[in-house]
Write a structure and sequence with these properties.
Alpha-Beta Plaits; 7 strands; 7 helices; 30% helix; alpha+beta; 3-stranded antiparallel β-sheet; 202 residues; two-stranded antiparallel sheet; extended
């Protein structure tokens, strides 16, 4: 065993299950003496605090105003490229566009999407019997939107995922995802929206 391998902290897998999640293991690393004292991390955090404090104080001394936003009463406008909370688009009959091809779940690097397929009535296509997104796992990369061949999932709602006290509240089911509205009614394909945005930026 090399010295680098011997000094590496051992991984600890918690035996306690996480309620409301699938295939989640709570992991922690064994702390050495410097980690347990917390002096280094405390000084590092104080350094960030004092850097912002003296930076803002300097702005006031030279007569510049500090830009502040009274959130949540006052919010900054988001751009069209802002990756907000997901939504599922509907067909004319109200059913989801999703055909349960699992492309979004396959492309998701965080394994945040869970789909269970079923037969679509009156069609040879499939439909999602279960479509869930775990917002705590989601890293907002947008790969699910790019991977979907049916343009069934988008991240254009302009909604921040709301904070919650339980993990169950962060699991968005199919009905919740279908209830959200976005920047358009879904008739304009995402490729056309990208082309229009590039024209505006030019």
């Amino acid at each position: 065993m090399s010295h680098a391998t011997a000094s590496r902290p051992q991984q600890f897998i918690s035996p306690l299950p996480v309620h409301g999640a699938r295939d989640v293991r709570v992991c922690a690393h064994a702390m050495d003496v410097s980690d347990r004292v917390f002096v280094i991390e405390a000084l590092r955090g104080l350094g960030v605090t004092f850097r912002h404090f003296f930076g803002n104080l300097g702005q006031l001394l030279i007569g510049r105003n500090i830009e502040t936003v009274c959130y949540p009463e006052q919010k900054r406008p988001y751009t069209e490229r802002f990756r907000a909370q997901h939504r599922l688009l509907k067909r004319d009959d109200g059913s989801p566009r999703c055909v349960a091809c699992f492309m979004c779940a396959t492309a998701c690097p965080a394994y945040a999407i869970h789909i269970e397929a079923e037969e679509r009535e009156g069609s040879t296509e499939k439909a999602p019997a279960v479509f869930e997104i775990d917002e705590l796992r989601c890293v907002d990369c947008g790969l699910c939107v790019e991977a979907c061949p049916c343009d069934a999932i988008r991240m254009d709602t302009g909604i921040h995922p709301a904070p919650s006290l339980t993990r169950e509240a962060t699991l968005l089911d199919k009905a919740t995802l279908l209830s959200y509205s976005g920047l358009d009614d879904g008739t304009l394909p995402k490729t056309a929206r990208t082309a229009e945005r590039r024209k505006v930026e030019r």
